[in-house]
Amino acid sequence: MAQPPPSRAWQTADRFGAVASFLCAIHCAALPFVLALLPLLGLQFLADIRFERAFVVFACVLALLTLVNGYRRHRRPVPLMLAFPGLWLLLLGVTVAEQYQLALHATLVTCGGVLLASAHFVNLRIDRRQPHVHKPGCVH
Questions:
Q1: Contact at 8 Å (CB) between 5 and 72?
Q2: How far is 81 from 126, CA to CA, in rounded Å?
Q3: 10 Å Cβ neighbour count for 93?
Q4: Average pLDDT, the chain
Q5: What's the CA gap between 15 and 84, in Å, rounded?
Q6: pTM for the full predicted model
Q7: 68-83 residues labelled b (16+ CB within 10 A) or e (exposed)
Q8: Is 122:100 a contact under the CB 8 Å cutoff?
Q9: What is the helix (H) or strand (E) element at residue 32, kind and residue range?
């Protein structure tokens, strides 16, 4: 039997997570190149490790909530199989890799962000393909 379709709130959260993860990946990839320009633009907070850690924690929590909820609906493990290595790379990048070269840190966090964004996009795609369950009062 088909599962109920995702609510609009979960779809919005998944879209937001995909965009946030993708922006995180871009931020981490570009940061080594634009680090000197940020203070000139008044955006030095983007280079602050506290901002990065807070953003990574937010992205991880949002990913876990939306992707686990998606798995409960569609029972397809692919989004989680993309997300868990992404989460691991993100967390590794903002903890252990901070003690090493900036390139290692940027690479880990960028790859983690791309995997997390991919997990959200796959989850949204699976939700769109999921058959609709008709209930009394359904207009579709």
A1: no
A2: 14
A3: 23
A4: 78
A5: 18
A6: 0.70
A7: eebbebbebeebbebb
A8: no
A9: helix 8-34
Which residues, at least 6 apart from 124, have a Cβ–Cβ distance to it below 8 Å?
11, 14, 15, 18
**Would you state the structure tokens that stand for residue 20, as one six-digit string?**
């946030």
C-alpha closest to that of 55 among 31, 38, 81: 31
Q: Is the Cα torsion angle 109, 97, 46, 12 positive or negative in sign?
A: positive
For 98-121, write each residue's pLDDT tens digit: 777 778 888 888 889 889 889 988
pLDDT digits (tens, 9 = 90+) for 60-81: 898 898 899 889 888 999 999 9
Query: 49: Cβ–Cβ under 8 A, 6 or more apart, which residues?
Result: 94, 98
Q: What are phi and psi of 136, to 5 degrees?
A: -55, 135
What digits encode the pLDDT tens for the residues 26-60?
766 666 666 666 666 776 676 667 878 888 888 88
